Every structure is written in C-alpha cells, then in structure tokens.
C-alpha cells in the first residue's frame, strides 16, 4: 500500500502538467469517480477503496446496478498525488478482507499513472475474482461543483422528484402551448384509438346474466361446459329430502348423479376450503399445508392468494366450522333493482382477490328449462304451475352451486329475486350443513332509476329478445314487476346486507345484520364503497425509462427522451379528454418514472401511492432478464414455471402485488370523478385484470404496452374499454 503521501499542489506529474499550468488552480478541487464492474454475483462482498486521502479508512463503493459499484468524492487541492487500492469486504463485517493483487494505483494531478488494469482478488476458495475498473477525475471549481450538484438534484436525482409532495394540487390549468405539452397531438383523440382485446367483461352489450355459470344440471356434459343446450328431463327435487342421505345424491338431471359424495375416505388428506379461504391441503402425515400449481383446477392446491387472504384461509381451515367454509351470497330484490349487476361485480372482486367464486343466475336456468319468452302470467303468485316451475329452477341452480362447493368452490353468488320468505326458507334448508348463507337485498326507491333499468332490461335481456315491439315488452315487464310486488317480503331473517338506494348516485345506505367473519366483512366493505356513477378510469404505464432502454427491471431511473415526449403527449391527452372534469385526479407510484411522466399534467391534483410501485424484483432488481437467466438460473426457471406465485427473493410475487392493490381498487370503486393511474407494467396488469375480469393465472401475461392509454368506462351496463396509442 502506498505511503499515504500527498503532495502540495505543485504541478503534479508530467501527464497533468499542461492542464495544471494552463488553469488557474486557486480553489480548484479534484472530483474523482471510481467504478468497478463484475458480472459474477458477489453481492456478499462489497468493493471498498482505501487511499492516501485517509489511509486508515476503507470507503465502501455503492451499488449502481446489479454489476456496477461506484464511489465519487472530492479531494481537497492539497492532495495532488493519490495512491489507492481496492478491497473486498463482506457486508457488515471487516473480515475476511481481500486486498487486490499487484501494486497500488496512482492518480497524479487528476490523471491515472497507468492504464486502468483489472482489479484481481484471490478469495478464500482460491478463486480469483476479476473486476473491471473505471477511474475518472476532473478538476472543478467549488462553483462548478455546487452548480452541477444543483442541476443533478433538480433534474435527475430521485430525491428531487421525491421533493414533490406526496399530494400536490396544481389548480391552474394551462393550455398545451404553455405547459410544453403541445407535442403534436391532434385534437381528434379518436385518431389514436387502437382495438382493445375483447373479453366477456369489456362489452357493455353483453347482458351480465349471460356471463354467469352454465347450468350444469340442464346442459349435457358434467361441468356444464358443453356448448350444447339440449334440454334434459328434469325431476323436481323435494327440498326437504335433498342432502339428507349420505353418499351419492341423486341429481335433478335424470340419469346423472351430482358429485355430492361424502369424502370420508379422504379424511386427513382433503381439507375443504374455508370461507375467505382459498384451497388448502393438510398433508395426511403432518399438519403442514402444502400446495401444487394453480390453474390445474384440481382440489388440494394452494391458495391463489397471498397476505391477508391466505392468512384468513389458514385460520378458517384450522378453526372454522365446516359449513362456514363455503359461503352463499343470496341476492334478494324485485326485478330491475340491479341484482345481476351487483352480483357480477362482487364475483369479479372476489375472484380477483383469489377467492374461488361463481355466479349462478336462476333466470338462465329458467330460460333453458322453460324457454325465454314467458309472459308476465308465468310470474304470478297465484299461478301454481308457474310457482312450481320457478321453485324448481331455483332449487336446480342452488344444488348445482352446492355441488360445485363440494368440489372445492368457495363463494357462490346466487342471483334470483328470492323475494319471499317461503323461497328463502327453501334455500336455507338446502344449505343446511353445507354452506353459510348471507342474503344481499338490493332496494331502490328512485322511480327514475327503476324506469331506466326496466328500459335497459327490455333492450338487453334475452327474455325480450324475440319481442319486436318495445312498448309491448315494456308493458309485459311492468306486469311481471307488479306480480312480484304483490308478494314481496323484504329480508328480516338470518344474516343479511341491505343495499338501499346505492344505485341512485347520491350515496344511499347499507344495513347489515348478523355479519361476522373475514370474508363477509370484506364483502360489506366492498359494497359500502362501490356505486354505479359512470366515470372513466385511465390506466397507463410511465413513459419509457432509462432502465427500459437498457432492458433492466425495477430500479428507479428517470425517463428517456421518448418517455419525455410521451409525458407531454399524455398531458395534452388528459387535458383534452378530461377538460370538463375538474374533479379528476392523477395517481402515480412513488417512483420517479411515473412522477416525471405526470409532471407536465397541470390543473389536476396528483397523488403518489406506494401501492402503485412496480413489483419488487428483490435480489434481481436492476438486472436484465438475460442476467437473471445466466446468474440465477433457478430463479429464472421458477418464475417461468409459475409467474403468478413466484416471489423474487426479498421481493414480491404477482399475488403479493394484487394484495397490496386492494385499497387502490376500493378507492377506484369509491371515486365518482375520473382517475388517471400512471403506474408500471406488473401493477397495471393486476389492476386491468380486475376491470376486465381476467382470471388470476392470466394476470402476469397480460399485454401492457408502453405509451398506450387504456380507458375503462364504469357504468350501469358494466365495464367498457377503449385504447389510445399515443406513440409508435
Ligand atoms: O421491464 C419493466 C418492468 O416494469 C420491470 O420493472 C418489472 O420487473 C417488469 O416490467 C414486470 O414484468 P414481468 O412480470 O413480465 O417481468
């Protein structure tokens, strides 16, 4: 190691003499930047440097990216000749310390005494570690230093972005020209529209009931998945006798048996899923829960959930009553009160959280069994055939739901009017010992909304698809409604949630009775916060970041030039799209690429959400996918196998991301004004999956291109999607 010698500013070595002679040296300082690069992962060994500026102390280099370490410092003018050496030290300890091979390095008057050679370290195992070394030195005046530090802080440093308050309100809208956002975006937003992938959920023209479960007991093929709608003879069950016998239970479909066997033989191996609980299995030999891959559709797989949902699952498995492990949400309400819409929305939310949930619509069973064109007479309470037929299809649907629960299904949403006690008693009897029932009653006192719903129904419901005369359809439906009104009995029994005037757009209220448990509590919370006021939600990734350009994941880099252009185009777009929506808000993550993307947008409040930060890639943060494949092949393979559940070491999985996004979803549901969400690929995949009702296993693979806006329109008829591509 060098002597620690340092000369006074005397002109230094030959190499730097000219520079020193030509410059006025007064007050100038040497700005030194040292970098070491090694592609082999040696994260436990931290490169340090020890030099003549302070020979007793080794300074650690900081990790700049996965393979690069860096240290910059300023040396006072009296240190013109510096000699130094690199060391490797374990994290959090001084031993063993490996000093680089060969002589000390010298920096004389700002120039390196020799060509930068590799730094070689012989480590314990006898292995030699090689680091590439980059040394840069500049003479700078204190003024230059201060100025460049300021510029660095203002323009590039994350701290500068973080200097923007978490919540900021810039209420002075400016025109595109003034805010620099006039980057050639034409006024005609339609010009930027690109086709959206079509999903069952994003077409407002699909009647929600059509997307519900296929009546398995009415359709050939045991799972009801057959496209054939051939009708089968149906035997009406006597509800009081159903499920009393053990073992095989006769189904209502002649010649078939529903799989309602008792699984005693599997005791200790198959453990039912709990309410609020995704699938779990307790191994027969131990009390340890284990799991297999998601998406196989088999029993005994681990939950498609993380965090609170998984914790509740375990608690329910260990402690819950068997019948409480399955939950039926039984809708109650007069026709045209938004039951099917509410049921569909709740199904979407629970599925997204990882609860195995299905929506059973009795109307679908009725249409299949008795045809779609029943007149209002069919629904009269004093029509015994009609009553029997309606009870029959309700019992069929309910039993299909129980069969599915027995196979492992967790939450059934049972969608029918169920508008009198007699019917509800029948369902409670069917459910005895099989599942817990919560009634969900939708009440609407606003005649205008009811009228609107009725009209929508005539336009959309398959019940009126063959009625060419709209007015005749309207009159018939109003008769049907009157028939129901005559015998309607509001819920007052059991566990229930009443949603009163929640569709009016003015708040409404929720009444609950006898509700307890994790999942029921969560359902109430969701229902309290949702409403049907139409408003757009705009989802977009940040503008291209510097790490995107380098193909590195994670990190917190600023945006590239293309990213900046997008930020301006986005500002222009938002200004035009939401010009009449002053209550709209802009949500970003806390990472600078989203904050910088939002920065040209003015006139709207901006809110930073930690929950919107990109998936945490843990030890792989900052790597390229190639580097992960090369340096951490096991991680690469595990992620490839199960991208949804794979959790980066010291990072997150997609399921973790979904868990942390729940408050964001609740707030998006609660907001009545438009929201622009500027976030990241993985996070937007998870958010988009909620709105588009995409299955969890697809989430990590959803396409989420840069520089594209996905507009989600939420309203009474469901969710609609439109995409704008602002840049090629
Ligand atoms: O590459 C951009 C990025 O946002 C990364 O920061 C993040 O790790 C990644 O996308 C998420 O996508 P995937 O789950 O497909 O790796």
What's the short story on this structure?
The chain is of the alpha+beta class and 728 residues long.
CATH-level-4 superfamily name of the largest domain: P-loop containing nucleotide triphosphate hydrolases
CATH architecture group name of the largest domain = 3-Layer(aba) Sandwich
Report the bound ligands by name, code or SMILES.
6-O-phosphono-beta-D-fructofuranose
CATH topology of the largest domain: Rossmann fold
Shape: elongated
Terminal CA distance reads 56 Å
Which value, in Å, is the CA radius of gyration?
33 Å
SS element count, helices:
18
- Secondary-structure content class: alpha+beta
Question: Which runs of at least 5 residues are low in confidence (pLDDT < 50)?
Answer: 1-25, 151-160, 173-184, 222-302
Beta content comes to 15-25%
Domain unit count: 4
In the CATH scheme, the class of the largest domain would be: Alpha Beta
Count of β-strands: 29
User: Mean pLDDT, rounded to whole units?
Assistant: 77
Largest β sheet strand count, sense and barrel closure: 8 strands, mixed
Widest sheet: strand ordering? 12-26-25-27-24-28-29-13
Organism: Pisum sativum
Pfam family, one: His_Phos_1
GO molecular function: 6-phosphofructo-2-kinase activity; ATP binding; fructose-2,6-bisphosphate 2-phosphatase activity; starch binding
Region (Disordered): 1-26, 257-276
Structure commentary:
With 728 residues, this protein is of the alpha+beta class. The chain has 4 domains: 14-163, Sandwich (Immunoglobulin-like), CATH 2.60.40; 191-200 and 534-725, Phosphoglycerate mutase-like (Rossmann fold), CATH 3.40.50; 203-220 and 321-529, 3-Layer(aba) Sandwich (Rossmann fold), CATH 3.40.50.300; 232-238 and 251-291, no CATH class. Helices cover 30% and strands 20% of the residues. It is built from 18 helices and 29 strands. The strands form 6 sheets. It has an 8-stranded mixed β-sheet with strand order 12-26-25-27-24-28-29-13, with helices on both faces. Strands 2, 3, 6, 7, 8 and 9 form a 6-stranded antiparallel β-sheet that branches. Strands 19-20-18-21-22-23 form a 6-stranded mixed β-sheet, sandwiched between helices. The longest helix is centred in the middle third of the chain and has 23 residues, at 384-406. It is elongated and about 105 Å long. The protein starts with 13 loop residues before the first helix and ends with a strand. The model is unreliable at 1-25, 151-160, 173-184 and 222-302 (pLDDT under 50). 6-O-phosphono-beta-D-fructofuranose is lined by residues 553-554, 614-615, 617, 680-682, 700.
């Amino acid at each position: 190691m060098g002597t620690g010698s340092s000369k006074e500013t005397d002109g230094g070595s030959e190499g730097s003499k000219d520079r020193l002679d030509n410059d006025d040296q007064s007050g100038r300082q040497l700005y030194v930047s040292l970098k070491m690069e090694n592609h082999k992962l040696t994260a436990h060994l931290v490169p340090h440097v020890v030099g003549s500026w302070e020979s007793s102390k080794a300074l650690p280099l900081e990790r700049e990216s996965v393979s690069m370490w860096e240290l910059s410092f300023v040396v006072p003018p009296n240190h013109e000749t510096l000699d130094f050496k690199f060391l490797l030290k374990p994290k959090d300890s001084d031993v063993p310390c490996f000093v680089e091979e060969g002589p000390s390095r010298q920096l004389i008057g700002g120039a390196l005494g020799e060509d930068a050679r590799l730094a070689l370290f012989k480590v314990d195992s006898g292995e030699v570690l090689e680091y590439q070394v980059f040394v840069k030195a500049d003479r700078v005046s204190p003024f230059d230093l201060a100025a460049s530090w300021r510029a660095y802080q203002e323009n590039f440093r994350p701290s500068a972005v973080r200097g923007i308050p978490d919540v900021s309100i810039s209420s002075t809208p400016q025109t595109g020209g003034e805010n620099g956002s006039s980057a050639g975006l034409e006024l005609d937003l339609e010009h930027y529209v690109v086709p959206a992938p079509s999903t069952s959920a994003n077409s407002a023209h699909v009647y929600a009931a059509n997307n519900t479960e296929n009546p398995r007991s009415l359709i050939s093929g045991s799972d009801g998945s057959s496209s054939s709608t051939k009708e089968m003879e149906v035997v009406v069950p006597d509800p009081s006798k159903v499920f009393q016998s053990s073992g095989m239970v006769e189904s209502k479909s002649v010649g078939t048996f529903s799989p309602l066997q008792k699984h005693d033989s599997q005791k200790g191996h198959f453990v039912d899923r709990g309410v609020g609980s995704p699938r779990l299995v307790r191994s027969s030999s131990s009390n340890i829960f284990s799991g297999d891959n998601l998406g196989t559709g088999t029993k005994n797989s681990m939950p498609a959930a993380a965090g609170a949902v998984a914790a509740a699952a375990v608690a329910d498995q260990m402690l819950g009553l068997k019948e409480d492990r399955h939950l039926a949400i039984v809708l109650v309400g007069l026709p045209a009160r938004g039951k099917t819409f509410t049921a569909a929305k709740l199904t979407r939310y629970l599925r997204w959280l990882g609860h195995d949930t299905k929506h059973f619509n009795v109307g679908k069973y009725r249409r299949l069994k008795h045809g779609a064109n029943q007149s209002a007479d069919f629904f009269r309470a004093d029509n015994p055939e009609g009553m029997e037929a309606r009870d029959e299809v309700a019992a069929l649907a309910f039993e299909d739901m129980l069969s599915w629960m027995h196979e492992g299904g967790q939450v059934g949403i049972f969608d029918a009017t169920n508008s009198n006690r007699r019917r509800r008693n029948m369902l409670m009897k069917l459910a005895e010992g099989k599942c817990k029932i919560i009634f969900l009653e939708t009440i609407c006192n606003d005649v205008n909304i009811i009228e609107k719903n009725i009209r929508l129904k005539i336009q959309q419901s398959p019940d009126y698809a063959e009625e060419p005369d709209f007015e005749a359809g309207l009159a018939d439906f109003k008769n049907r409604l009157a028939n129901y009104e005559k015998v309607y009995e509001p819920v007052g029994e059991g566990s229930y949630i009443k949603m009163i005037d929640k569709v009016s757009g003015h708040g409404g209220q929720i009444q609950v009775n006898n509700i307890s448990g994790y999942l029921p509590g969560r359902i109430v919370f969701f229902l309290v916060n949702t409403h049907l006021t139409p408003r757009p939600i705009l989802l977009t990734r940040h503008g291209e970041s510097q790490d995107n350009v380098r193909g590195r994941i994670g990190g917190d880099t600023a945006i590239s030039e293309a990213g900046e252009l997008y930020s301006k185009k986005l500002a222009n777009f938002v200004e035009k799209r939401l010009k009449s929506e002053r209550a709209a808000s802009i949500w970003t993550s806390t990472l600078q690429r989203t904050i910088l993307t939002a920065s040209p947008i003015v006139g709207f409040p901006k809110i930073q959400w930690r929950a919107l930060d990109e998936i945490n890639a843990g030890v792989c943060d900052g790597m390229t996918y190639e580097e992960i494949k090369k340096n951490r092949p096991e991680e690469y393979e595990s992620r490839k196998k199960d991208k949804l559940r794979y959790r980066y070491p010291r990072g997150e999985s997609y399921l973790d991301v979904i868990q942390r996004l729940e408050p964001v979803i609740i707030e998006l549901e609660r907001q009545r004004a438009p929201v622009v969400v500027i976030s990241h690929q993985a996070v937007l995949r998870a958010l988009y999956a909620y709105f588009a009702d995409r299955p969890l296993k697809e989430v990590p693979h959803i396409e989420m291109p840069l520089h594209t806006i996905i507009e989600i329109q939420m309203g009474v008829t469901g969710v609609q999607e439109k995409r704008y591509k602002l840049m090629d």
